[in-house]
């Protein structure tokens, strides 16, 4: 894993935006994997700003989002489709028909299974994901792959853990229906992406980040599966990195990488 520690959350967003821009500027039909949650909002703001400054265009981009709540309409204020429209898609030149968020409005298991299969097929048809953006849950989940998710799982129905339901309660009004099920890309699906970039900021994520990077490979921390990915980059602010035992080593690695890049190895 490449672990990059930057001073502030804003620096993490800029780094991630650079990586996204690199992919969309270097490929004819770039395929992005996108995430929801509070963490990537600053990244999306930055991408919108770069689009407005004419530095990037999403005209040829195809996107796949990690997950969606089951049983609420796309138009629901808390659906991940709404989140993506509000934070990114409505403000850039991506064709909405090229944006894929799992279709999960139905509560019928057969319809949902078919939707999950179709989602996997669409990723294949698009040629696979070039860069998957990820956040991390407090319990180490990626997408909605909760602890004990199989490392080879594909897009499927997943029951949310109590900790996730509590963490996401803040987005729902008092008394409003809050889904306990989601349709999520599997860990196997995520690992098939050509590159993954996980961003984490703030003290609350420090424990999950430590277990993901320095803990054993374990289904108890779904994000630890990224240890198996050939090109996984983890970008952290100081707070999220605060519990890492090998923090100084990761900084040293980045220094050496930079020196190598500049032809200045010492
Ligand atoms: C949700 C999403 C995840 C996201 C996580 C963390 O549960 N399904 O993809 O990574 O929340 O969100 P936040 O960035 O708000 O901490």
TrEMBL record:
Keywords: Allosteric enzyme, Carbohydrate metabolism, Hydrolase. Allosterically activated by N-acetylglucosamine 6-phosphate (GlcNAc6P). The record marks 149, 156, 158-159 as: Part of the allosteric site. GO terms for biological process: carbohydrate metabolic process; glucosamine catabolic process; N-acetylglucosamine catabolic process; N-acetylneuraminate catabolic process. GO terms for cellular component: cytoplasm. Its EC number is 3.5.99.6. Belongs to the glucosamine/galactosamine-6-phosphate isomerase family. NagB subfamily. Catalyzes the reversible isomerization-deamination of glucosamine 6-phosphate (GlcN6P) to form fructose 6-phosphate (Fru6P) and ammonium ion. PANTHER family: GLUCOSAMINE-6-PHOSPHATE ISOMERASE (PTHR11280:SF5). This is Glucosamine-6-phosphate deaminase. The lineage of its organism: Bacteria, Pseudomonadati, Pseudomonadota, Gammaproteobacteria, Oceanospirillales. The gene is nagB.
